[in-house]
Amino acid sequence: MDYLHRTHNALIKQGKPGLQRALMEEIDWNDRIIGIRGSRGVGKTTFLLDYARRYYAPNAPECLYINLNQFSFTVTRLADFAGEFVRQGGRTLLLDQVFKYPDWMTEFKECYYKYPELRIVFTASAVMNLEEEDPELASLASVYHLAGFSLREFIQLDNGLTLPALSLEDIVERTDEVLGDIFSSINPSLWMDRYLEYGYYPFHLEPRLYSENLLKTLNMTLEVDLLFIKQLEQRLLHKLRKLIFILAQRPALQMLNVSQLATEIETSRSTVMNYIRYLSDARVLRSIYRAEDTESGKPAIAYLGNPNLYHLLGQEACDRAELLRTFVFNQLSKGHDARLSARSSLALFEIDGKYPVQIEEELTGRYRSDRYYILEQGDLSREKTIPVWLFGFLY
Questions:
Q1: pLDDT tens-place string over residues 5-54
Q2: Using CB atoms within 10 A of its CB, is residue 343 exposed (0-12), middle (13-18) or buried (19+)?
Q3: Which of 151, 159, 147, 148 is nearest to 389 (CA)?
Q4: In this structure, are residues 334 and 348 in contact, taking their beta carbons and an 8 Å threshold?
């Protein structure tokens, strides 16, 4: 316990609270078990440490951060450790890498019933599905999703200017009003190119090359989050990697041909469907379904999870409109649903079943009043036109 307290204090002292992530304000910190899910590399560990730095002094005995990779937990039960922590005045355990501890779900429930004064905040992979894996724990825990940086957060991190998050209704229905407020202090379009290339992950704050960090993160997602957590065989790794690369090279505005993909990676059609589901859970892909379809079926289109991945995977001349659609779907993924419209071509989507949208670099065809246009350039003063960067203010 003393060693872990010293380690905790050293981590807390290493820095001061970083960027105020939007999720920090959304969480009810009075809940007793709080899960922070997210894809690998988006900053879950940093989020835990930022919480500790904001609400506890560096030497506070009430809060302890633990990485469950610690070798001592091969011989010490987490629940017993938590009991001793509570007896010494501890109140908040911040637990990282919980999947490395074999029986964490059972012992979390034991802690919940034994130690009502204890709060557990834990990080988990985006592929975790607590409702399926342990319905009882799911009923006790409040689980939140930590996304990568939004464009708003990226700008705030870059220049220190505090900018408001907006609701979807603000963006779509009060466009002129919110644009006036934002333009009074900044022009966010100036950050778009950098964000599309390297803004989603915090790696650009580190000295090593961003692309190397992102490549490492993507491979760790496959090797740990999918193969280890989902118990897939190692021999499948090559097929997963090949599937991602193939999807990155072809236009996303092309109906997903599962049979052709199965032939290309030499597996069955049902296996490709499973791979796409796993990769979507891990936020490596973003599956877009038709408005009338359920998510248990075949997606209509598959995009990469965020625009930074296109730059990593060798698509040097990626169509700008594809990058912009990937950006919009990525920013919508935190709390909103985007689907392919049932009433038009592959270029028309529906957001939350309410807003028909067309996402383009600029409007080149005939203007239609039955949809909203999300555009990067051109005449943005026309009714129902929205600058694409504004969707980067959703969180």
A1: 555 555 555 555 556 688 999 999 999 999 999 999 999 999 999 999 99
A2: exposed
A3: 151
A4: no
What are the CA-CA distances from residue 269 to residues 115, 272, 299, 346 (Å)? 48, 5, 13, 23
Burial 41-71 (b: 16+ CB within 10 A, else e): bbbbebbbbbbbbeebeeebeebbbbbbebe
Residue 311 main-chain phi, psi, to 5 deg: -65, -35
Cα 52 from chain centroid (whole Å): 21
Q: How far apart are CA 97 and CA 119, in angstroms?
A: 17
Q: What's the token pair of residue 388?
A: 């694409």
Beta strands 355-360 and 348-351: pairing type? Answer: antiparallel
pLDDT tens readout for residues 139-153 = 999 999 999 999 999
Closest CA to 78 of 36, 43, 122, 44: 122
Distances (CA, A) of 346 to 84, 273, 289, 290, 393: 58, 21, 11, 10, 26
Which CA distances in Å does 112 have to 120, 126, 136, 209, 226? 9, 23, 11, 42, 28
Sign of CA dihedral 169, 173, 177, 179: positive
What length is written for the chain?
395
C-beta separation of 135 from 109 below 8 A: no
Which residue from 201, 349, 215, 236 is spatially nearest to 287, judged by alpha carbons? Answer: 349
- Give the N- to C-terminal CA distance of the chain in Å, as an integer: 38
At residue 163, φ and ψ (nearest 5 deg) are -120, 145
User: Helices 269-281 and 237-249: crossing angle, nearest 10°?
Assistant: 80
**Which two three-digit tokens encode residue 254?**
């092309």
For residue 252, what are the CA distances in angstroms to 5, 100, 176, 246?
A: 49, 36, 31, 11
Is 298 in a helix, a strand, or coil?
A: coil
Tell me the C-alpha distance between 153 and 334, whole Å.
14
pTM for this one? 0.89
